[in-house]
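Most newcomers find our protein records easier to grasp once they have seen one. To make this concrete, we reproduce a full record directly below:

…
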Amino acid sequence: MLVALAIASFASNSVLAANLTLQQAYEQQRSDQQVQGTGVVSRILPDDNKGSRHQKFILQLPHGQTILVAHNIDLAPRIPELKVGDTVTFFGEYEWNHRGGVVHWTHHDPAGRHIGGWLKHNGKTYQ
């Protein structure tokens, strides 16, 4: 029982720390920063089909910040059946903007020059 509580506490603290990093990146207007976090889908946007195709959606983070996720679906599978209210965990590169920022590079790099990112939804990883 204590082990389960310790693991749950560690996981909860890890999520809080990750989202705090995002909050600080936004407040300090930092870009080009690898971030990890978890949020709830608040809006699903149309795919961006100009150049590399991207699945786009807005996540609401626990501290209130919103971020745009731009997931390259030419390099990684799209999240099928994504709905408002779903929880998504992410690892990618943060770019600051006045609306909360954008997370991209949520996929592998076929050239191997950039750290690979990912999205997790309903127990499945998309990279």
